[in-house]
């Protein structure tokens, strides 16, 4: 039984404040299935916060997050998130995958087959029996990705997934991400790396100081930024 | 799946070890006797009980605590038989209906031990009250059991006879250990102090230090043992038949002879004196 | 010094000769302590994990209580269990007083707070690391408990061993609820107390050495298993 589509996502006037400080203010946008959405901006812009709010890990102070026709709790079951540092269980690589398959109630016989298929797509099958924690940084992040993908999410959130990785590992992760996207999962990703944004984005949400400055298709954004902040950022200058 | 196998093996090993105590409880016939640490420490039960078990097939489990606690145990019904050595407390036990009847079994005696140097000069005295008065006068350190045991109660009555108020002196030359006879003797040995002890404990006590017997033989140092069955009216679960068998055996010729035959370091420690009727 | 030498040779003699009484009290000591720790682990692991992970009113108070209970005086626990199991007490009809089972109960009561407090700390630390990811994956409150407990299994072992150490060293409670009955409820620690009270200090010391060897052996075994497992599982 395939769950109903939770996209498009409509965010309206989203605010998040702590102790009187507005970390996110008046954010509104709409994003549909298909394009890879990259949330771009300098550090401290509120990108991670936005992702966590959309995924339901935090509650907004004001505003709405509307998934198509469902509640946020039900929507969360169709989403998955990968963090900057992979949080893997202290078990084998394979066990990390079967753990989430078990969560979904998949019977034991099918679990093994699904797990091996997922690991193979991620290029991690030879490492299946290894303790997850002895894998390299890039391999661990790919495992985290594989684990998220094993949930068959409609939306995959990624918070600076390659910020701690070397170029080779980054490339492997991006390749896997591409594969995941092509199977139909919506990607919503944050990064402060311009190059990565150029490589991966179909759609850009540009944040600065907790505000949504620009929302545009990637080609338009990179060739013709509409705001002063975006222009400064694209020139590689420091923005504050 | 290595870890699962290891885990299972370990669990089974633990389970086997844990099952061990359960088998110990599954013994067939047994009675519980509340007695005192001094009696237990003398080794008398080690000598007597196997003989009794051989004759009757009944196992005797002795819980050895201070006299006060033994009586409390029996009053609560946690024992079937009470076997202690303080006649006034025992008679009170019967009078209050906790016991069926009291019988004399045997006696041993108490001695006053003290340091070789003997600062109170009591060595060889035959009058224990005079000796204690001298200890008080010289303010020589005396260690008491202070635990409401039979020994302790006897000691207090002797101080009273000697006309010494020890309660006031507690903490100075008079030290209350609040402990068993052996522990008290350890303290006395460590302090080079005087103390009152039953002969049985003293004979087998191995940590004497500088202490030796200084006063003995006074008839007031006489220590009578009594045995009684816990009353089934108060505690219906008491094993009256087997408990009575034990009492009868102790009072029988066989039991009395076994008591007399018991030796500590070659000396007779207990003297049987059962009478055929209750006292 | 003489006492120590005498004790050492006595201990050696007892162990080499496999003195029957010694074997009996050692086996009983091990089974009582292991049973108590086993039972305590079953109770304490979920308890400690729940206090670490779940949010409920009065949580801070429970945490303080758990830490405070680690300092439970054994004699007090012994007295309370005795009053419970005594014939004159509420559970008297069970007839558990002066049996090894009573000793297991008393030791379990003493050991559970220790293991629970250790567990709480270990699981709380793990939870900080895992909380967001587990919420993202949609792991429910009970499953979170088991996941964290299993992932923290190596650190938790330290808490369990601490509990075993406490159980093995215990004498105040077991002597009161067990009665120190020859061949029934006499364990190594209560025998040490008995022999000391008889003035048999070298023998008491020898038994003490044997007890420490026992605890050392258990700890070593646990550490070896832990290391081997760690190498396999990271």
Question: Helices and strands in order, then pairings?
Answer:
The complex is a heterotrimer of chains A (240), B (279) and C (234).
Chain A: E1 9-18, E2 21-31, E3 37-40, H1 47-55, E4 62-67, H2 72-76, E5 79-82, H3 93-103, H4 108-121, H5 137-150, E6 155-159, H6 167-182, E7 186-191, H7 194-200, E8 203-208, E9 211-217, H8 218-223, H9 228-234
Chain B: H1 2-25, E1 30-36, H2 37-42, H3 44-56, E2 59-65, H4 67-75, E3 81-84, H5 87-95, E4 99-115, H6 128-137, E5 142-144, H7 150-162, H8 166-169, E6 174-176, H9 181-191, E7 194-198, H10 199-204, E8 211-215, E9 222-230, H11 240-251, H12 253-261, E10 263-264, E11 267-268, E12 271-272
Parallel strand pairs in B: 1-2, 1-3, 5-6, 5-7
Antiparallel strand pairs in B: 3-9, 4-7, 4-8, 4-9, 4-12, 10-11
Chain C: H1 2-16, H2 20-53, H3 59-69, H4 74-85, H5 100-137, H6 141-151, H7 153-169, H8 172-178, H9 188-197, H10 201-233
Helix pairs in contact in C: 1-10, 2-5, 2-6, 2-7, 3-5, 4-5, 4-8, 5-6, 5-7, 5-8, 7-10, 9-10
Note down, in words, how this protein is organized:
The complex is a heterotrimer of chains A (240), B (279) and C (234). Chain A has helices at 47-55, 72-76, 93-103, 108-121, 137-150, 167-182, 194-200, 218-223, 228-234, and strands at 9-18, 21-31, 37-40, 62-67, 79-82, 155-159, 186-191, 203-208, 211-217. Helix content of chain A is 37%, strand content 25%. Chain A starts with 8 loop residues before the first strand and ends in a 6-residue tail after the last helix. Chain A has 9 helices and 9 strands. Chain A is globular. In chain A, the strands form 2 sheets. In chain A, strands 5-6-7-3-8-9 form a 6-stranded mixed sheet, with helices on both faces. Chain A has a 3-stranded antiparallel sheet with strand order 2-1-4, with helices on one face. Chain A has a single domain (9-234), classed as P-loop containing nucleotide triphosphate hydrolases (Rossmann fold, 3-Layer(aba) Sandwich). With 240 residues, chain A is of the alpha/beta class. Chain B is globular and about 60 Å long. In chain B, helix 6 (128-137) crosses helix 7. Chain B is built from 12 helices and 12 strands. The model of chain B has no long low-confidence stretch (mean pLDDT 88). The longest helix of chain B is centred in the N-terminal third of the chain and has 24 residues, at 2-25. In chain B, the strands form 2 sheets. In chain B, strands 1, 2, 3, 4, 5, 6, 7, 8, 9 and 12 form a 10-stranded mixed sheet that branches. A two-stranded antiparallel sheet of chain B has the order 10-11. With 279 residues, chain B is an alpha/beta fold. With 234 residues, chain C is an all-alpha fold. Chain C has one domain: MetI-like fold (Orthogonal Bundle). In chain C, 80% of the residues lie in helices and 0% in strands. Chain C has 10 helices and no strands. The termini of chain C are far apart. The model of chain C has no long low-confidence stretch (mean pLDDT 90). Classes of the chains: A alpha/beta (240), B alpha/beta (279), C mainly alpha (234). Chains in contact: A-C, B-C.
């Amino acid at each position: 039984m395939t769950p109903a589509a939770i996209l498009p996502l409509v965010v309206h006037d989203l605010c998040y404040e702590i102790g009187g400080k507005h970390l996110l203010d008046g954010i509104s946008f709409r994003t549909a299935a298909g394009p890879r959405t990259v949330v771009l901006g300098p550090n401290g812009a509120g990108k991670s916060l936005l992702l966590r709010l959309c995924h339901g890990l935090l509650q907004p102070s004001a505003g709405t997050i509307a998934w198509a026709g469902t509640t946020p709790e039900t929507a969360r079951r169709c989403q998955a998130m990968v963090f900057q540092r992979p949080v893997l269980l202290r078990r084998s690589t394979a066990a990390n995958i079967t753990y989430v398959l078990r969560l979904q109630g998949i019977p034991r016989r099918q679990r093994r087959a699904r797990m091996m298929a997922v690991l193979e797509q991620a290029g991690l099958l030879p490492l299946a029996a290894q303790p997850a924690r002895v894998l390299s940084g890039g391999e661990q992040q790919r495992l985290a990705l594989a684990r998220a993908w094993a949930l068959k999410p409609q939306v995959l959130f990624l918070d600076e997934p390659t910020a701690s990785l070397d170029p080779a590992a980054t490339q492997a992760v991006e390749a896997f991400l591409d594969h995941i996207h092509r199977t139909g999962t919506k990607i919503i990703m944050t990064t402060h790396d311009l190059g990565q944004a150029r490589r991966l984005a179909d759609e850009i949400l540009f944040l600065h100081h907790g505000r949504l400055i620009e929302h545009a298709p990637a080609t338009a954004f990179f060739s013709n930024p509409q705001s002063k902040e975006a222009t400064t950022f694209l020139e590689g200058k420091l923005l504050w | 799946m290595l870890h699962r196998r290891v885990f299972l093996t370990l669990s089974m090993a633990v389970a086997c070890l844990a099952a061990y105590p359960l088998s110990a409880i599954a013994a067939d016939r047994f009675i519980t006797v509340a007695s005192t640490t001094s009696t237990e420490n003398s080794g008398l039960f080690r000598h007597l009980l196997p003989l009794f078990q051989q004759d009757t097939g009944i196992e005797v489990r002795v819980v050895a605590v201070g006299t006060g606690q033994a009586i409390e145990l029996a009053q609560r019904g946690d024992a079937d038989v009470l076997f202690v050595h303080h006649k006034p407390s025992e008679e009170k036990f019967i009078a209050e209906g906790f016991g069926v009847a009291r019988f004399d079994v045997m006696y041993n005696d108490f001695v006053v031990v003290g340091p070789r140097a003997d600062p109170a000069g009591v060595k060889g005295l035959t009058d224990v009250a005079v000796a204690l008065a001298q200890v008080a006068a010289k303010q020589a350190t005396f260690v008491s059991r202070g635990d409401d045991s039979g020994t302790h109660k006897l000691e207090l009555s002797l101080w009273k006879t000697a006309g010494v108020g020890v309660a006031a002196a507690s903490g100075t030359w008079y030290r209350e250990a609040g402990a068993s006879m052996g522990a008290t003797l350890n303290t006395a040995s460590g302090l080079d102090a005087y103390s009152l002890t039953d002969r049985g404990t003293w004979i087998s006590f191995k940590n004497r230090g500088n202490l030796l017997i200084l006063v003995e033989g006074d008839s007031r140092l006489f220590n009578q043992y009594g045995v009684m069955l816990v009353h089934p009216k108060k505690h219906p679960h008491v094993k009256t038949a087997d408990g009575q068998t034990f009492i009868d055996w102790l009072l029988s010729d066989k039991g009395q002879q076994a008591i007399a035959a018991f030796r500590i370091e070659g000396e007779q420690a207990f003297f049987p004196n059962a009478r055929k009727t209750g006292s | 010094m003489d006492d120590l030498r005498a004790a050492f040779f006595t201990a050696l003699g007892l162990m080499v000769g496999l003195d029957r009484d010694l074997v009996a009290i050692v086996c009983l000591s091990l089974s009582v302590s292991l049973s108590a720790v086993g039972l305590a682990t079953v109770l304490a692991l979920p308890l400690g994990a729940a206090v670490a992970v779940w949010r409920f009113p009065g949580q801070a108070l429970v945490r303080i209580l758990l830490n405070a209970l680690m300092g439970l005086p054994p004699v007090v626990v012994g007295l309370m269990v005795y009053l419970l199991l005594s014939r004159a007490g509420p559970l008297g009809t069970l007839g558990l007083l002066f049996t090894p089972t009573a000793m297991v109960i008393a030791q379990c009561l003493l050991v559970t707070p220790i293991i629970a407090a250790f567990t709480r700390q270990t699981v709380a630390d793990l939870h900080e690391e895992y909380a967001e990811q587990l919420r993202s994956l949609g792991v429910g409150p009970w499953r979170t408990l088991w996941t964290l407990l299993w992932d923290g299994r190596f650190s938790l072992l330290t808490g369990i061993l601490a509990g075993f150490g406490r159980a093995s060293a215990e004498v105040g409670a077991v002597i009161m609820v067990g009665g120190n009955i020859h061949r029934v409820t006499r364990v190594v620690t209560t025998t040490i107390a008995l022999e000391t009270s008889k003035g048999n200090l070298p023998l008491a010391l020898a038994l003490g050495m044997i007890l420490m060897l026992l605890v050392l052996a258990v700890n070593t075994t646990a550490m070896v298993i832990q290391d081997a497992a760690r190498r396999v599982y990271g």
